[in-house]
Design brief:
alpha+beta, 5-stranded antiparallel β-sheet, 3 helices, 32% helix
Length: 159
C-alpha cells in the first residue's frame, strides 16, 4: 500500500512539472499576445471606397464613427503612435504621402486571440477622421469595438 502511495505522489509531482513546462514553453511572448489564437480571415473589402470607409453590416460586431476635427491628419498621426504602444495591436497598413491618410491595424484579444480590424482614415473633405472597428469572427463583440473607438476618440481630447 505504501508503494502505491509513494508512486501516486511521484506521478502527481511529475504531472505538475509537465504542466508547468507546457505552460512556460507555450506561453505567448510579445509576438503572440493571446493564449489561444482565433484570428479569422482578413476581410477582402478593407480600405477606402471613393474616399470613405465602408459602413457596418451589423452593429452587433462592428462600430463606425466620424469625428469632426480641426486637424484630422494630425489626429491620425497621434493615434498611429498610440496604437503602436498597445499590446496586441499591430499596424498592418498605412498610406498617404507625405502625410498619413489611412491606417489599418489589428487588435488581438488577450485570452482567446480574437482579431478585430481597425481602420482610420481622413475623410475626402479633410474635416473629419473616419473610424471603423469590426470583429472578424462571431455574431457579437459585446460592445468591444464601440468601446475601442470611444477610447481612441477620447484620447484625442483628454480632459
Amino acid at each position: 500500500m505504501r508503494l502505491f502511495s509513494g508512486l501516486n505522489k511521484l506521478l502527481t509531482l511529475l504531472g505538475a512539472q509537465l504542466l508547468l513546462w507546457v505552460f512556460l514553453l507555450g506561453h505567448p511572448g510579445t509576438a503572440q499576445a493571446s493564449l489561444l489564437h482565433f484570428s479569422g480571415v482578413p476581410p477582402a473589402d478593407l480600405g477606402l471606397r471613393d474616399g470613405l470607409l465602408r459602413p457596418c453590416a451589423s452593429p452587433a460586431h462592428c462600430a463606425r464613427q466620424d469625428w469632426p476635427l480641426a486637424d484630422p491628419k494630425a489626429a491620425l498621426q497621434q493615434l498611429a503612435l498610440e496604437l503602436e504602444a498597445i499590446p496586441g495591436m499591430e499596424i498592418e497598413a498605412s498610406s498617404g504621402s507625405p502625410e498619413l491618410s489611412y491606417l489599418h491595424a489589428t487588435a488581438e484579444s488577450q485570452l482567446f486571440g480574437f482579431v478585430d480590424d481597425l481602420e482610420l482614415a481622413v475623410d475626402p473633405s479633410g474635416s473629419s477622421l473616419q473610424a471603423r472597428s469590426e470583429s472578424r469572427l462571431g455574431d457579437s463583440d459585446l460592445g468591444v469595438n464601440a468601446r475601442r473607438l470611444d477610447q481612441l476618440r477620447s484620447s484625442l481630447n483628454p480632459g
